[in-house]
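# step 3/5: fold
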Amino acid sequence: MRTQLRALRACAVFLTRLRLGGFPYSDAEWRWAAAYFPVVGAAIGALLSAALHATQALGAAPAAVLCVSAGLWLTGALHEDGLADTADALGAAPRSGERLREILKDSAVGTYGTLALFVSLFLRVSLLIELAESAAVALILSHSLARVAPVWLLASMNYVSDPATSRSGALASAVGLPQALAAIAFAGALCVWAIAMTATPVSAIALCAATLSGIGIAGRVWFSRALGGVTGDFLGALEQVSECGVLLSLALILHT
């Protein structure tokens, strides 16, 4: 139990900029931290839902912008950074593996990265406006479910970044099937909660699951062809695309 509680704490330390301490974490604690990605994601979504509610008096658009901005601060733009680096590395013509690694390590943001960030941010803001009264639940679902596929890819693919220099290295070295199944189990429980307690249609949850499955499979194929495995940046990009996918799926069902 102590290992699991500290693993949850390690996960929150990794995914947010909250100074929760607890260092040093053992290898077992870092390994199980990945299983709690959807749990911490749901907590992030809940905090952002509160921020959205608190700023509603300003209007739907300003509230959505401030909500997304709060998410950027809370997570330290961890996943956005991965999206930008991945877009720059994979967006142009095919490159050698060594060149891809150089671009992923480069702190500068290029044209493809800038465009990817713009699309991601604009899409999330506009979808929160569109979802209106459903936005609070959508935030919880999107931030939680979007973090399942990265855990599954960590468990099923080679991690091709140097663990010693990668921020994700401590998590990546020993994540396996038990952690992936635990993450999926929590995501499933959250979906049941959404259906039972918030009247979210089953069709909306089913579309979210189908969308996330497609994104995960596409990411696996693309990353395998590019570098033969995943990197921390690839996982961050996958989370961003998945987050947008969940919001799109919910908007399609709830506002048609």
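# step 4/5: annotate
The CA atoms of residues 101 and 239 lie 20 Å apart.
# step 5/5: archive (pending)
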